[in-house]
Structure formats: structure tokens, C-alpha cells
Design goal:
By secondary structure, the protein is an alpha+beta fold. It folds into 4 domains: about 1-35 and about 45-165, no CATH class; about 185-245 and about 265-290, no CATH class; about 295-460, C8orf32 fold (Roll), CATH 3.10.620; about 465-670, Jelly Rolls (Sandwich). The strands form 8 sheets. Strands 5-4-8-2-1-10-13-12 form an 8-stranded mixed beta sheet. It has an 8-stranded mixed beta sheet with strand order 25-26-24-23-30-34-33-32. Strands 20-19-18-21-22 form a 5-stranded antiparallel beta sheet. α6 packs antiparallel against α8 and α7 (about 360-365) packs across α8. The N and C termini lie far apart (about 65 Å).
Length: about 675
Amino acid sequence: MNNFFKVCVLTFLFSNLLTAQNIKFGKVSKEELKQKFYEKDSTADAIVLYRKISVRFEYSQTIGFRIIKEVYERRKIYNKGGFKYGTVIESLYHGRSDDESLTALKAYTYNIVGGEIEKTKLKGSDTFTEETTKYYKKEKFTMPKLKEGSVVEFKYEITSPYFSSFNEILLQYDIPIVEQEIKVVTPEYFVYKNASQGYLPFKVNSSTKAGSLTLPKRTAGAGLGIGGRAKAEYGATKIDFINNVSVVNMNHVPALKKEVFVNSMNNYRSAIKYELQYIKYPNSPIENYTGTWEKIVKKIYEHPEFGNQLHAKRFYKDDLAQVLSSKTDEIEKVNAIFRYVQSRMNWNGLYGYYTDEGVKKAYGLKTGNVADINLLLVNMLQSSGLKANPVLVSTRSNGVPLFPTRQGFNYVVAVVEIGGKNIFMDATSKFSKLNMMPKRTLNWAGRIVKEGGGSTAVSLFPNYVSIENIMMSIDLSAEGNVKGKARRVCRDYRAYNFRSSFSGMDEETYLGKIEEKFSGVEIDEYKIKNKTKIGAPVNESFSFVSEAAADVIGDKIYVSPLFWFTKRENPFKLEERNYPVDYAFPWEDKFMVTVKIPEGYKIESIPEPVNIAMEEGVAEYKIRVASVIGGFQVLSNLKMNQAVIPPHQYEGLKEFYKALVEKQTEKVVLSKI
């Protein structure tokens, strides 16, 4: 029996064994350690062999109800690419009085050493706590002695006093999950609604089971009280209740594969979401937790670290007067205040719609989180008599909220209404301008928060086209080499992306990246205008040389009309796609290329002009190659009129790009005279 056949047999037996036995913590087999790949996805760097999540409620007379979430996972690491799955991170909320906590952590790494299983325990030095915001911290641990072929397993508990803290349980990772069980047990007093996210089918098995708790006599008749708290008394009464149980069992869950032009894959990751509807203790009124977006936004507005931050104004009064000196036009005022806050304040990288420092303290420190900066911006705009309001946003990484919940938002920006039109602003970014927010905020819709807590939904996608214009003048030699000059102009989001990516990079490094991208091209005489002038187009010019930029075969030369900018491959390869194609903003690429052909050659053939368009004006492409004195000229124009292309238009987009690639890869043919 050859080695390959042995591996295949072991893999087959192992994958069937996993679903046939009850995996127990600490009982790792040699078969698991010897497995070389996962038969259902041989490209996986790692897999989850087994995963179990259990959520239950516990009650104590001094604390009341709290949620216990038990986590157990066993993972197989195939190669170095899978080492990152040996690190586990949990984000925990810490409030003014009650914190979520991670306890009962046990974790081991298993390797085969000398033919025997070596078991290495996680040490305290391998665990870390990182404060990420005023309200959140990360508990993180990295498994010891990771090797190719290691198996790791860990279990821990997360305790939370917040009844909506487990509102989402992921069912899909970036690596396959061989087997998993999710179990949620909630007392009848806590009414949840569950909803599914993603495209993997799964079944929720629902049932009930009996539960009970013991309360002091005096408080038992009065119910559990708000938050479930009860005063200790002599004597006790037993209360029986019903637990609602939901269970999800899944086998061979495929990895969530990344696709091009997706705002965040987390938006499409399969998960089950538990939305807390209300709490109803015995003999107590209903306490509602969700309902409408209007109710959610009103609660956010009434929080002292949101609504109150729009009222204090004296601390910047003199500075604002100077900023607005001689400004009478509303747009001038808006731009002056925005530029002032943008230049004065420095973002600390933390998200949130509640302030960490408060706008007054942050103003003095000249730094703060998103809310510190953008609520300050709204405050100053309102103080100037402008119709300005905060806008609650869910960033692209946070996903699109499927139902009304305070966890649906994690960011806040500013909007001002002038002449019936909204102008959006985010002063955390040093490269943005009016109506140009950072890409992280361009995520479907936000909610404008009005005075008193009223709100309205508003689209966040820009409705203007951002243009990149490239002009090249090229001399082509009989050997297929080229030299020439180029000019590139980037406007709006194209300029914003350039500044965000390259503003802090030295010229040599930047040009090295460009030369690497267009292999074989050497750049010289580089000049740039408006590199840091926010709002102005970025203007680059340079000369270049490149060998073998055209194919010379016999007495003919074959030239790609757009040279290095030719799209040679369709980025959309899936037969069908469940996710929208998300470009973040409408865009247009324009090319004008003039080519001087070598002496002794003539144009034998050129591609026919073409005009390709998608239905409903989603996208359009035009290219025209024409003979001119001494050579030929190319005009190419690709325009995407929509920021987001929904899945039902995916087939049309794929066919559009197929036709585009076919046209761009056609050659201009030159022959000797």
C-alpha cells in the first residue's frame, strides 16, 4: 500500500470517525495528529474538528440572572498558514459596574514527538488582555508549541450580566468546521427572536425543559425584580419555570471563501442571531428591549455621552469666532468648521457612537475616538446656526444590521442640510472632504439623529463618479521595447484612496511598488502635484522604459493597445454569487494612449471599436483604436455607474467583463513594409 493511498484511507476513516464518536476534552488521537489534509477541502490550512457552544442562564440571590456561555473547540493545524488559527480572541464588554469575564480557561497543544503524543498546557504568560475602547477589552491567548500537524483544543466560559450579549453566534469560519453543536437555553422570562444570516441551510430544533430557582420568601411573591436582583431573607420559596431550548447541529460546514469586491465577508457569514424582545418576570411589568429603530435611536440620544455632547458650547466660543471670521456663505462656514476640526483633532483609532473623553475634554486634548471628534463637529456646526445632526453608522466591518438593535451601529458621522441637500462629513480622516467620507463608513444606510432622539434613514453611498484619467505617449521599437511619458490624474475617491495608501510613503518605495505591479517597467523623472492638498486632484507625471512590451514574431509585432493596463482576466469566476458586488463608490477609468510605431512598419490590423453596456445603465465600456500619422491612438473608457451591484445582476456583470477582457486582449498587428 503506497503512502498516498494510506493517507487517503486514514483521511476517510478519520472524517467518518469524527461524526460517529463523542469527542471529549483531552482525548486527542494519533489519527487526528497524523491527518495530512481535509478531504472535503484539501486547500484548507486548518480545520475545526469539533466545536460546541452552550449558552445558559444562572441565577443567584445576590446578583440575579446572568448568562454563561461555554465554548469548546478542537482545531487541526495542517501547515504554517494555519498557525493564525492557534490564536483565539474574545471581545468583552466592561461597563461602569458590571464586566463580562472570561474564566475557566483550559487549553492544550498536541504534537507527535518520538512516536508518542506530547501534550503542552497553555500558560498564563500566553494570555493577554487588551483595552480596545472605554467599553470593550479583548481577551487573547496563543497556543504554545504550534507545529505543522498540531491539534489544539481549548475551553472557557464567558459570564455576562447583559442579556443581549450573545445576540449572534457564528456558524461559519474562514476554515471548515467538521462538526459543531450550538445549544441555547433561556428561561421563559427572557423572550428572544432568532433569525438566520448567510446562505448555509441549517435547522433549529426547539424544545422545552423544566427549570427552577429558589428565592427568599419575602421577595418571591413580588417577582424577581428589575435585573433579577433580590434581597437576602430567612426562608426560601422554590419557583418552577420553563426553559426554552434551541439546538443547531451541523456537519462539514464549508469555509467562507473570500470574493472580490465585497464590503465585508462578515456580512455574509452564516450565523444565528438572538434578538432579546422583552423581559417579563412574575408579577412584574414587561421590560421591552427592542422594537423600532426610533426607540433604539432615542435611547442612544438620551445617553449622556451622546445627546449631552451637543449642548456644551462655551469652551470653543473664541476659537469658532476666529474660524468663521468673514465667512457669510453657508458652504464656506461648513467647510471652515470641518477643516478646523479635521486639522485640530487626532483620531485615536477607536470606533463608537458614545464619547470616551467627552467633546470638551477631547477638544483640549486634541484627540479622541470617533464620537469625540464627530459629535464635536456637529456641536460646532449647530452653534454656527447650521442645520447639522449626527448620523449613526454601521461600518463595513461591522456588517449590515438586520433588525433594530443598539449593536447594529458602531460609528457616528456628521451631516448638514443646505438647500435641501445633505452634506456628509467625517473629521477623523485627514484626507476626506465634504461629502467624501472614509470607505469604512460607506455601508448601505445610516440614521440621522434629530434633536430629541427622532431619526430618519439615509443612504450613505456617494452618487457622484470618481475618475482616474491616464494619458500615455509611447515610442515603440522594432524589438518590442518602449519608452514614453505618462500622466495620471485621480479625482475624488480615487484621489482619497491614493492619499490614504501612499501619502506617508517615500517616493522610492512608492515607485518600487508601481514598477513591481507593472513588471519590467522602469520609471524616471517622477513628479507629483497636490499630494497632500485635500480636495484637489492628485496629478502625477513620469517617463518610463520597458523591454519586451510587445511581442515580435517574425516580421510582425503584436501590441496590446493598453499595454500594462490591459485586463487579461475576468475577476468574476463563480457560476453564481450570493453576495452583492460592492465597489463602495461609482467610478470611471479613462485612457488615452498614443503610440508611435517603428520605422519600416505599417498597421496591418486594429481591433474594431466596441461599445458594451449592461442593462439598466449599470456599467458601460467603450474602446476605439484608430490610425494616426506615424502610429495609432487608443481611447478607452470604463464606467461603473453603481456602487453596489446586487446578486441578481451578477450574471450580467460577469458577461460584461468577459466581453471587456476579450476586447482588451485583442492586438494591434504591425507588419514590415
